[in-house]
Structure formats: structure tokens, C-alpha cells
Amino acid sequence: MSEIPEHCPGVTSDTAGKASACAGCPNQTVCSSGEAKKPDPGIGLVRDRLSQVRNKILILSGKGGVGKSTVTALLSRFVARSNPEKNVAVLDIDICGPSQPRVLGVLGEQVHQSGSGWSPVYVEDNLSVMSIGFLLGSPDDAVIWRGPKKNGMIRQFLSEVDWGSLDYLFIDTPPGTSDEHLSAVTYLSEADLTGAILVTTPQEVALLDVRKEIDFCFKVKIKVLGVVENMSTFVCPTCRKSSEIFPASTGGARRMCEELGVPFLGGLPLDPALAKCCDDGEDFLAVLEGSRVVDDLKDVVTGVLKCCK
């Protein structure tokens, strides 16, 4: 459905499509006919498909450019590497800006389809990924789709990918609180969603938007597993000393979490060596073994796993 008016009576109301607030709404005909009250069959399909996925975790951010896709890749790689007996996967539902194929080093791979659904691309023996990036003719191709088509693709990803048995599924989303997020939440409403991890940077301009993302989680009843403060410090590539390039003038993510009553999972530094690993699709755990970013990531992952089954 299109954007909901401020005084919408709701699709379950007897006045749906008939109230004065419904005048001019593009969904008025659908609501008044009763079609909107019917459950979406995709919800059941997603529930059945993900029944063997123990933990389903959304990765959210209020603002673009805070490193959400990078954090998703870091978490998935670290969990897979440190728990070789566990199966981990990444689902990239950032339809217009898919980053996971490049960051995870599988750019150019092909997706195969069988009678049981789409087969994800494997990064490691226990780490797989699915993204619309695998379905494009070229990494430079723009995805110019309206909301309904994007929502349909998200439904396909959630209900038609043959993940098999998984311990952790990290779902990388686009920034904001719009169509893709509402679609994901709706389709996962009966699939026992574990919760959401929110990514921000220390400066207030980013925290303002992540507060909206936290409010979104509260309103749609998603458990906030915690907040990760990315780029909390800058690691000099020459001397390896740390400095703040995004000053936390209002106390940063830690202070915000205290105010809103949500867990603070920790901070990750901005390291040029890590950025290069992501651009080249290299395994940062092997390249940056013993670095501060790996140590800090371990603390973040420990906090995440405590919230999981």
C-alpha cells in the first residue's frame, strides 16, 4: 500500500476506506473493498522458508554512509570464522545499492536456481550471501524500481532462497525507515525475528537519524539488540595512533543508548586498511589479525551473541 495518511482508521476498522480521512487516499478503493484485510500469503511462505534459521537479525541505520554494510560483513565474517560449527548467511536487501558481493569478495558470482529455490553464493564453507547484485548484468547497472517491485523482490529473497539450516542470518537493509523496512518487518512478522542491530557514527547529525530508527523499532515492535558506533576513532595508517575525526559532541552513541534505554554494543575504529580490505573483498580477519579493529569487533560480537538463541 502507498503512504498512510495521518488519521488513517486502519485496514481492520469497519470505516476503512469510508472515513473522511480516507478521501483522496490512493488506497481507498482497496480498503473499502476489504482486500486489505486479507493476510499476505507471503508472510506464511517466509515463515516456512526461514523455519530452520535460528537467529534472524536486521542491520539498520538511520543515515547512509555510516558503514552499515561494512559492519554487516564484519559481523558475519567474524561469527563464521570464530564458530566454524555454525552456519552464517547475509541477505542484502539494499535493492538500489547492493554492497555485499564486493565487500565479501564474491563480485561477479552467479546465482543458481533449482526446484528448492535460489542457491546462495558461498564465501566460506559456513558463510553464504544473497544479493540483487548477483542478478545484475553489470555492477554499474542502476536498479530503477518503484516501491511495489522492490517489495516483491524482498519477498522473493525471504521466501525463495534455499538457505538450508542456519544459525545466523544477517539482513543488510538500506538506510531509513521506508518501503524496504516495512516490507521486511511485515514478511518477518511470523518468522520469529530475533531483533535489530543499529549502526551509527559518533556525531550528532548521525545520531539524530538513528534515534528515528530506534523509534521505528519501538513502533513496529522489533527488539533492539544494540547499537554499534562505527568510525568511533581514526587509526593512522603510518603511526597506528588513534584520534577522533567525528567528535562526539553530545556524548556519542553510548550516551544516546543510556538516554533511550537500549544496549550499547561498542565502537569500531575507522582504519584505512579495513577500508581497503572491503574494497578488494579480502578477508580482514586474515589481513588485520591482531589489529584494534579485530579486538573491538570481538567485543561487539560477544554482545550480539548474548542476545541470540
TrEMBL record:
[4Fe-4S] cluster 2 binds at C236, C239. The keyword Transcription regulation does not apply. Residues 54-218 form the AAA+ ATPase domain. Pfam families: ParA. Component of the cytosolic iron-sulfur (Fe/S) protein assembly (CIA) machinery. Required for maturation of extramitochondrial Fe-S proteins. The NUBP1-NUBP2 heterotetramer forms a Fe-S scaffold complex, mediating the de novo assembly of an Fe-S cluster and its transfer to target apoproteins. Belongs to the Mrp/NBP35 ATP-binding proteins family. NUBP1/NBP35 subfamily. Heterotetramer of 2 NUBP1 and 2 NUBP2 chains. PANTHER family: CYTOSOLIC FE-S CLUSTER ASSEMBLY FACTOR NUBP1, NUCLEOTIDE-BINDING PROTEIN NBP35 YEAST -RELATED. This is Cytosolic Fe-S cluster assembly factor NUBP1 homolog. The lineage of its organism: Eukaryota, Metazoa, Ecdysozoa, Arthropoda, Hexapoda.
